[in-house]
């Protein structure tokens, strides 16, 4: 949990609360945040690797690198479901 406080604007506070709730519902391996882990997430994860880009949702094992290990873990998550 990350604590954030940007000001006294009530709408802004509601936005931050929404954002935190969204993050709490997030499932590891759900690269596109649609609450389902499927082959689409694998495709997106592979695209992250091909683009050499980093996204925290794509870093399945949370080692600060997006690579083939994350793909393998994601495939295992899908096979086990
Ligand atoms: Ca997904
Ligand atoms: Ca990783």
Task: Tell me what the structure shows.
This protein is mostly helical and 81 residues long. It has a domain at 29-80: Type 1 dockerin domain (Orthogonal Bundle). The chain has helices at residues 10-25, 39-50, 68-80. The longest helix is centred in the first third of the chain and has 16 residues, at 10-25. The radius of gyration is 15 Å and the shape is elongated. Residues 59-61, 63, 65-66, 69-70 line the site of one calcium ion (CA).
CATH architecture of the domain at 29-80: Orthogonal Bundle
**Rg from alpha-carbon coordinates:** 15 Å
Distance between the termini: 27 Å
Strand content: under 5%
List keywords for this structure.
single chain, 81 residues, Type 1 dockerin domain, binds calcium ion
List the helices and strands and how they pair.
Blueprint: H1 10-25, H2 39-50, H3 68-80
Helix pairs in contact: 2-3
The structure holds calcium ion (2 copies).
One calcium ion (CA) is lined by residues 30-32, 34, 36-37, 40-41.
Short description:
This protein has 81 residues and is mainly α. The chain has a domain at 29-80: Orthogonal Bundle (Type 1 dockerin domain), CATH 1.10.1330. The chain has helices at 10-25, 39-50, 68-80.
């Amino acid at each position: 949990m990350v604590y954030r406080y940007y000001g006294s604007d009530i709408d802004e506070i509601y936005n931050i609360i929404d954002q935190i709730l969204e993050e709490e519902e997030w499932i590891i391996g759900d690269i596109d945040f649609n609450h389902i882990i499927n082959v689409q997430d694998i495709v997106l994860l592979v695209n992250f690797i091909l683009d050499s880009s980093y996204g925290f949702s794509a870093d399945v094992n949370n080692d600060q690198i997006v690579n083939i290990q994350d793909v393998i873990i994601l495939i295992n998550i899908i096979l086990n479901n």
